Structure formats: structure tokens, C-alpha cells
């Protein structure tokens, strides 16, 4: 059975790309980042590709590759384009698929649509939660919105362990926790492979 996972965050820079790589490796899935904003010469797709060691995963091109590291709607405006969600077409594959969002679920793509509008009802949504002041609120808001929309939602914690934060999020959301990715000194193929083995049975 084909599995499709959409990886989103509670904010930006919370560890979505590393966690997308771990899930991609665990499922030997294909990877797709629909909208890339900035860092085109070291994009998230290239980062994930470097971290994957299996030979099955394929890496699909972005629907939109924008030049400025900003919210997609603003980066698109600078590039003189308008993001049309109808042009964001899921790649055709028989393999499992990991889709990485941009920022959080309500990041604008244009004047009326957000990342939430490209998450299909069939996707399992993985929310990456990283501890900082305000992260409990951001996690509960993100998970609450996704649950209200009827999505199958789970959480991966990212960074150093914060027991009280993780415990209250677990209690108040009542959704599965896949695991936590520690504050590692570095991430390479071997570290990704170790986490992939840990997470595999929980996906």
C-alpha cells in the first residue's frame, strides 16, 4: 500500500528537512518539495538527496523554485510570478511519497491560499514541533487546525528534550508521537539511517 506523508512545521527552521529525510529513508520513499523559496543552489531537495543512502528514492522537481528566502507569496512577487495551486501537481509515482511543506500550514502561497490548500485529504500529516517560548501554543494551534480538517496527524519532536513541553502537547493533542530527533552535532547518511530504523515501525 502506498503511503503519502506531508511534513509541516509549527514555524520555520524547526527541522522539517532533516525529518523529511528520515521518513524518506525509513520508507525508501520518493521526496517532493512543491515550493522552494531561496537557497536554490542548496535547496531542501538537494539536502535530502545528500542524506539518503537507499537507491530507491527519487527526488521530484519543485513546482515553484523561487529565489528569495521569504514567505512563498512574497518570494513569488519578487520573481514576478503568482503561485497557482492548480499548477502544484503531485508527481506520479507508485512509490511512497514524502512531501515537505514551506514553513507552517498557514504560510500564504498567494492572496487567498496557504500551504494547507495543497495538503490532500489522503495525506498523513507529520507536524514537526521544536521547543521554544510559544511552541506549545504553535503546536496546539497547528494540530488543532489539521484535526478539525479531518487529517491523520502525528508529531515528531525536534531538538533537545523538554519533558514538560512534550508531555503537555501529548496530553492535549491526543495524537501519536512518532519520536524525537535530538540536537545532533551533525546529520549525515548514517545518522539519518539510525533514526529511520527507529521511526520505521511508527510510520
What do these coordinates show?
By secondary structure, this protein is α/β, with parallel strands linked by helices. It has a single domain (4-202), classed as P-loop containing nucleotide triphosphate hydrolases (Rossmann fold), CATH 3.40.50. 32% of the residues lie in helices and 20% in strands. The protein has six helices and nine strands. The protein has helices spanning 16-27, 44-51, 72-79, 135-148, 163-173, 189-199; strands at residues 4-9, 30-32, 35-37, 59-60, 64-66, 97-100, 124-130, 152-158, 177-181. The protein has a seven-stranded parallel sheet, with helices on both faces. Helix 4 packs parallel to helix 5. 40% of the residues are buried. The model has no long low-confidence stretch (mean pLDDT 97).
Provide a concise account of the structure shown.
The protein has 203 residues and is of the alpha/beta class. It is 32% helix and 20% strand.
Record the SSE blueprint.
Elements lengths: L3 E6 L6 H12 L2 E3 L2 E3 L6 H8 L7 E2 L3 E3 L5 H8 L17 E4 L23 E7 L4 H14 L3 E7 L4 H11 L3 E5 L7 H11 L4
Parallel strand pairs: 1-6, 1-7, 2-4, 2-6, 3-5, 7-8, 8-9
Amino acid at each position: 500500500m502506498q503511503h503519502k506523508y506531508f511534513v509541516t512545521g509549527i514555524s520555520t527552521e524547526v527541522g522539517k528537512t532533516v525529518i523529511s529525510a528520515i521518513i524518506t529513508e525509513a520508507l525508501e520513499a520518493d521526496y517532493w518539495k512543491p515550493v522552494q523559496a531561496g537557497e536554490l543552489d542548496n535547496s531542501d531537495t538537494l539536502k535530502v538527496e545528500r542524506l539518503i543512502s537507499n537507491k530507491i528514492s527519487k527526488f521530484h522537481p519543485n513546482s515553484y523554485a523561487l529565489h528569495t528566502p521569504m514567505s512563498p507569496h512574497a518570494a513569488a512577487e519578487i520573481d514576478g510570478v503568482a503561485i497557482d495551486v492548480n499548477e502544484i501537481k503531485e508527481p506520479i509515482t507508485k512509490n511512497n511519497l514524502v512531501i515537505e511543506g514551506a514553513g507552517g500550514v498557514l504560510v500564504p502561497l498567494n492572496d487567498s491560499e496557504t500551504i494547507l490548500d495543497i495538503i490532500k485529504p489522503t495525506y498523513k500529516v507529520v507536524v514537526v514541533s521544536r521547543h521554544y517560548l510559544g511552541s506549545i501554543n504553535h503546536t496546539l494551534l497547528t494540530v488543532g487546525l489539521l484535526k478539525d480538517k479531518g487529517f491523520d496527524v502525528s508529531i515528531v519532536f525536534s531538538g533537545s528534550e523538554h519533558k514538560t513541553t512534550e508531555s503537555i502537547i501529548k496530553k492535549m493533542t491526543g495524537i501519536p508521537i512518532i519520536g524525537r530527533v535530538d540536537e545532533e552535532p551533525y546529520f549525515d547518511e548514517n545518522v539519518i539511517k539510525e533514526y529511520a530504523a527507529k521511526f520505521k515501525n511508527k510510520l
